[in-house]
Amino acid sequence: ELGTYPHYMIKEINEQPQVMRKIIKEYQDDNGDLKIDKNIIKQLNEADRLYIIAAGTSYHAGLIGKEYFEKWAGVPTEVHVASEFVYNTPLLSENPLFIFISQSGETADSRAVLVDIKEKGYKSLTITNVPGSTLSREADETLILHAGPEIAVASTKAYVAQIAVLAITAAVTARELNKVSDMNLMSELAKVTTAITSVIEDADKIEEIVKSYLETARNTFFIGRAMDYYVGLEGALKLKEISYIQAEGFAGGELKHGTIALIEEGTPVFALSTQEKVDLNIRSNAQEVKARGANVCVVAMEGLEQEGDAYVIPRVDDMLTPLVSVVVYQLISYYAALHRGNDVDKPRNLAKSVTVE
Length: 357
Ligand code: M6R
Description:
The protein is α/β, with parallel strands linked by helices. The chain has 13 helices and 10 strands. It has helices at residues 8-14, 16-26, 38-46, 56-73, 82-85, 108-119, 134-138, 157-176, 185-201, 203-213, 227-243, 279-291, 322-339, and strands at 49-54, 77-81, 96-102, 123-128, 141-144, 219-224, 246-251, 268-273, 295-301, 311-313. A 5-stranded parallel sheet has the order 2-1-3-4-5, with helices on both faces. The longest helix has 20 residues, at 157-176. It is globular. The two termini are 31 Å apart. 5-amino-5-deoxy-1-O-phosphono-D-mannitol is lined by residues 55-58, 102-104, 107, 110, 153-155, 237, 241, 353-354.
């Protein structure tokens, strides 16, 4: 039910701290240790390579998941767009595990891959928000997102839930493989929850950003490096999906390889900086486009902020920043669509679950 909210999308954005708390609770045992089903642990232990299969926003969450599995657990991981995998099938390892990420659990492109790999005898795990969905029933194992029903076509809380569950799954895999970590994931996720709350409380400030950067925009760019690049892809998808402003997300370093030709006087460019190791590089990309007339909106993490930045997100662990920075982009997209008088929850030409290939 909508309650006092004008749209499901803003309701679902606002529910994200609650979703994070629920996930922390569901994936923790009585001793406060990370907990997932032992059959899933076995699957993960036996795999020599993970193949994440997903579409749209879920694919973007998968890109972040790969970082967790590789950096924390040392397990090679590939992320594939479901619709491409069927014919652009890579060479597979000896013991692959396929991980399907899908809010709805009904995406036909992902199901086509699942049917195919099952025929070949490979193991599968579905990460979904909907218990009993097709992908959940047909895979060997399931992890639930616990995000509650997501009604708005634009996915918000499911993306955050997917990243959190992927982080937990990767951290469990790392633990089982005896990889040492000095990070207490659950307490870091609790800090993330507080940070998300503070971004949501700044909704008015973020609406002002939309007024300064997007009111008359026809096209826009989202740049970032490392994790911030992946969040830029999601920011661009969100914005185009509901505001119909053409948006492109790309790696900051790719600017000079083509896209910079599109920068004109006043073109909005969103630059995200939450990763210390690439802060200087993304700042210089921001300068490059600014020098060519772009209206640059920098979103930075506390500790990396500089004068003139449009918004500063609270400091959280480097690897977990997407959970917080994406909320800024979700709100930007929401207000951009709202100010254009669009149907925020039911954008044109789109369905909540895409059940045709
Ligand atoms: O239900 P799924 O997660 O499998 O859906 C995948 C995409 O269709 C979905 O994420 C889509 O990109 C969203 N509308 C984006 O907001």
